[in-house]
């Protein structure tokens, strides 16, 4: 996903900003890995505190996952699922942040963007994950009191199969807010008139869309199944 976002955004920006946007996309993944490993995973999947956020001290730095990684005497319960879950969720934490990089492209300082990337992957995104995929107040598996949100087998809480209401909504709303606060790119509007900026590569943008549209191919189909089923824990 990082590669796809990079191709799209590097093709959309001006040539002088290509390296900047590529660095942002690459470091999104690195920053997300550090932040999610440190405390983000705990906020997302720790024991629920009022249905709002996960709090569980032994998940800081993934302590409980690391302590359970060794197999038992029977060679079972190796903890691979826990590490797989972390790896999977880390990838989407980075994706949520990367969505914003395109929305505010060519308008933010590199250092400021890295601070934002850390904040969204450590706190903002994990909290929303807890609401929907964890045991938060919206989750069908941990919804709080109410006729539609109750802790029963017939709970009518939200079930987000593919991340549209968690990953993409968080990234999209954060990107919209960033674009509103920062405003247009410098020189985009002069004297009440719109100044056209030449994007660096329409080919790169078209290539990404072509790959996304060719979902009938075997590799893309396998990817989609893995993403959707992996998110629901059914694969």
Description of the molecule:
This protein is mainly alpha-helical and 235 residues long. 58% of the residues lie in helices and 3% in strands. It contains eight helices and four strands. The protein has helices spanning 2-12, 18-45, 63-67, 80-103, 110-132, 164-182, 202-213, 218-232; strands spanning 48-49, 53-54, 189-190, 193-194. The strands form two sheets. A two-stranded antiparallel sheet has the order 1-2. A two-stranded antiparallel ribbon has the order 3-4. Helix 2 (18-45) runs parallel beside helix 5 and helix 4 runs parallel beside helix 6. The longest helix is centred in the N-terminal third of the chain and has 28 residues, at 18-45. It starts with a helix and ends with a helix. The mean pLDDT is 81.
The assigned structural class equals mainly alpha
Low-confidence stretches: none
Q: What string gives the helices and strands in order?
A: HHEEHHHHEEHH
- How far is the first residue's CA from the last residue's CA? 20 Å
How many β-strand runs?
Answer: 4
Rough shape?
A: elongated
Helix content: 55-70%
Major beta sheet, strand line-up: 1-2
Mean pLDDT: 81
Radius of gyration: 20 Å
The helix tally amounts to 8
Beta fraction of the residues? under 5%
What composes the largest sheet? 2 strands, antiparallel
């Amino acid at each position: 996903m990082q590669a796809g976002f990079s191709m799209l955004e590097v093709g959309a920006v001006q040539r002088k900003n290509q390296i900047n946007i590529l660095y942002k996309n690459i470091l999104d993944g690195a920053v997300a890995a550090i932040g999610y490993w440190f405390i983000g995973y705990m906020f997302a999947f720790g024991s629920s505190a009022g249905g709002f956020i996960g709090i569980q001290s032994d998940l800081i730095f993934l302590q409980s996952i690391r302590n359970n990684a060794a197999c038992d005497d029977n060679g079972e319960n190796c903890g691979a699922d826990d590490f797989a879950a972390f790896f999977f969720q880390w990838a989407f934490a980075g994706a949520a942040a990367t969505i914003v990089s395109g929305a505010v492209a060519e308008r933010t300082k590199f250092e400021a963007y890295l601070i934002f990337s850390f904040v969204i992957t450590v706190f903002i995104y994990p909290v929303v994950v807890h609401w929907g995929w964890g045991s938060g107040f919206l989750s069908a598996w941990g919804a709080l009191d109410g006729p539609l949100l109750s802790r029963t087998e017939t709970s009518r809480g939200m079930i987000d199969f593919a991340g549209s209401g968690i990953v993409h909504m968080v990234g999209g709303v954060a990107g919209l807010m960033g674009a509103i606060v920062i405003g247009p790119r410098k020189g985009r509007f002069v004297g009440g008139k719109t100044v056209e900026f030449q994007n660096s590569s329409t080919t790169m943008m078209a290539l990404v869309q072509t790959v996304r549209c060719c979902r009938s191919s075997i590799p893309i189909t396998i990817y989609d199944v893995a993403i959707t089923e992996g998110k629901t824990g059914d694969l």
